[in-house]
Amino acid sequence: MSESSDNKKVKQSPSLKARALRLLSLREYSRKGLAAKLAESEARWSKLGGEQAEHTPESRNSQIEAVLDDFEARGWLSDERFAEALVRRRSERYGMRKIADELERAGVDSKQSAKLLGALKETEFQRAFDLWTRKYGVRAQDQKEKARQYRFLASKGFGSEVVAKVVGGQTPD
C-alpha cells in the first residue's frame, strides 16, 4: 500500500548548493567547469518539470554565479587548486602542450597556467622518456617504427624537439 503512494511522489530536485557541493566532493572543478555542470543539471531538472521550471535562464545563471561566489569565498572552489590537481594528474602521461590546452579549456588564468607549466618544462624530457620506455622500451629499427613512436609521443602533447631526442635514442642524464 505505501509503496504505490511513494512511487507517485514527484521527485524534488536537490538545491543548487547541494548539487555543487556534491560535485566538489567528488573532485576539484574549475569555476567554468562547475558552472557548466550546474547549468546542465538545472536544464535537466527544468525539463523534468521541477520547481526550477518557472525560472528564466538569466535568473538561473545569476543563482549559479551566487553559489560559485559563495564557494570561492569559503575556499571550497579554487581554480588554482584545480589547476594543480590537473597538472599532477596529467603530467605522467601527457606533455605540456596537451596540459596547457586542457587548462585553457577549463578557464584557468593564464598567469597560473604559465607558473605550473614552467615547472613542467623542466621535467618534459624525463617524462617523455619514461612514457616511451613503458610503451616501447627498445629503439626503433626501421623508419616505419620510428615514425609510429614519434606519432605516439607527439599525440600525447610532447614537443617535437623532445620527441626527436627520445625516439633518436638520447637518454636523460
Main features:
173 residues; mainly alpha; elongated
N-to-C SSE string, H for helix and E for strand: HHHHHHHHHH
Number of helices: 10
- The chain-level mean pLDDT equals 86
- Largest sheet at a glance? none
Name the quaternary structure. single chain
The rough form would be described as: elongated
Radius of gyration: 23 Å
Q: What is the total tally of β strands?
A: 0
Residue share in helix: 55-70%
Distance between the termini: 75 Å
Given helix and strand content, the structural type is mainly alpha
Low-confidence spans: 4-10
Percentage of β-strand residues:
under 5%
Summary, kept brief:
With 173 residues, the protein is mostly helical.
Describe what this molecule looks like in 3D.
The protein has 173 residues and is mostly helical. The chain is 69% helix and 0% strand. It is built from ten helices and no strands. The protein has helices spanning 2-7, 16-26, 31-47, 57-74, 79-90, 96-105, 110-121, 124-135, 143-155, 160-167. Helix 5 packs parallel to helix 7 and helix 6 packs antiparallel against helix 7 (110-121). The longest helix has 18 residues, at 57-74. It is elongated, with a radius of gyration of 23 Å.
